[in-house]
Design a protein that fits this description.
Distance between the termini: 40 Å
Order of helices and strands: HHHHHEEHHHHHHHHHHHH
Strand order of the largest sheet: 1-2
Shape: globular
Number of strands: 2
Radius of gyration: 20 Å
Helix content: 55-70%
Length: 363
């Protein structure tokens, strides 16, 4: 079996924004990021999967219940907290793309959302975050132990749903993604406070902690639809590249946006000492004085408001944010190109617009 990562391994791609890079499927509509188009939105995908999403929400509501009242209370705080539900929607949209008419994807989309929610609960504990999607984090309200344990509960529920599906292949894809996510989080933890983190390692981190679940969420639909491996790999490549683009934009807007836009405090990554790509590029391009500042800041010695203001100035003057977003557009284009093997239609159009939406969030 071919390695799906070979289609989109971030270590093997050029970082120049592609020009004229198009899908090879000759009947496909050509889309290029950066074209003058209406403001992209997730709404076409939302409309496409509304009926299916209602079924997924019913599964989520049922499976987050427990005789221990704290579990549904804490889980519901995050699950009902205004998230876009992008990952389960990708599972549903991928199934529509393939013409699947069964119901297995409903439980699997719920499993994907449980995995994602569990990782958010754990992440907020590790990062010491106070804000998530514009609301106080669960760990701030109920404490770290409760957040970790409810996250474990949601992971367990996700695996119950995978087992109930009955496919070892599906189980392998989603369980493998869960392990990769955990590895990515540990990799990020060990890279924290290290401004000299290589760009290659940063891409490994986001490819694991974010893109792996996007890829799995899309790929399992091809399995339940019993499509050929080539279509599995195409959906894996779409999801993986979309996930990388999504995280690159998230990391960029930490330096150019605000809590109202992001759902978290601007500068959280900076204050938590995360060596994201804007920092890595600004550090590499800065003079000796700038590098001294970055080293002190990422190590936690320069994290006041005026320090963050200087960081914003440096990432802008070195074009670090601009180039991070150029890379996001590059991966976004790769995601769009991966859909070239599929027939045109509403499902494909909505998945293309989801990529455009992910990139446009920074503008």
């Amino acid at each position: 079996m071919r390695d799906p990562g070979a289609l989109c391994n971030p270590q093997r791609v050029a970082f120049a924004t592609p020009r004229g890079h198009i899908a090879v499927h000759m009947t496909a509509t050509i889309h290029r990021l950066g074209e003058t188009r209406p403001t992209p939105s997730l709404e076409p995908m939302v409309q496409l999967v509304t009926g299916d999403m209602n079924m997924v929400n019913a599964v989520i509501l049922s499976r987050m219940q427990s005789q221990i009242p704290l579990i549904p209370e804490l889980a519901g705080h995050l699950i009902a907290g205004g998230g876009k539900r992008m990952r389960p929607m990708l599972t549903l949209a991928s199934a529509r793309l393939l013409g699947y008419t069964g119901t297995r994807h409903h439980r699997l989309a719920a499993a994907v959302e449980f995995i994602h929610t569990a990782t958010l609960l754990h992440d907020d504990v590790v990062d010491g975050s106070d804000l998530r999607r514009g609301k106080r984090t669960a760990n701030l309200i109920w404490g770290n132990p409760a957040s970790v344990l409810v996250g474990d509960f949601l992971f367990s529920r996700s695996f119950e749903l995978m087992v109930e599906d009955g496919s070892l292949k599906v189980l392998g894809i989603l369980a493998g993604a869960s392990a990769i996510i955990a590895e990515g989080e540990v990799n990020q933890l060990t890279a924290a406070r290290r401004v000299d983190t290589p760009e290659e390692r940063y891409l490994d981190i986001i490819g694991a902690k974010t893109a792996a679940l996007f890829a799995a969420a899309c790929r399992v639909s091809a399995v339940v639809a019993e499509r050929p491996e080539s279509e599995e790999l195409a959906l894996d490549a779409y999801g993986r590249n979309l996930g990388i683009a999504f995280q690159l934009v998230d990391d960029a807007i930490d330096y150019v946006s605000d809590a109202g836009t992001m759902g978290k405090d601007a500068g959280d990554d900076f204050r938590e000492g995360k060596a994201t790509l804007p920092v890595i590029l600004a550090y590499a391009r800065g003079g000796a004085e700038d590098r001294t500042f970055w080293k002190a800041a990422i190590e936690g010695h320069r994290n006041r408001d005026e320090d963050f203001a200087r960081a914003i100035s440096l990432v802008r003057s070195t074009r670090a944010v601009e180039d991070t977003l150029a890379r996001a557009r590059h991966y976004g284009q790769r995601a769009i190109d991966a859909l070239g093997v599929f027939a045109n239609g509403k499902a494909k159009d909505s998945m293309i617009e989801a990529v455009e939406f992910a990139v446009a969030r920074a503008y």
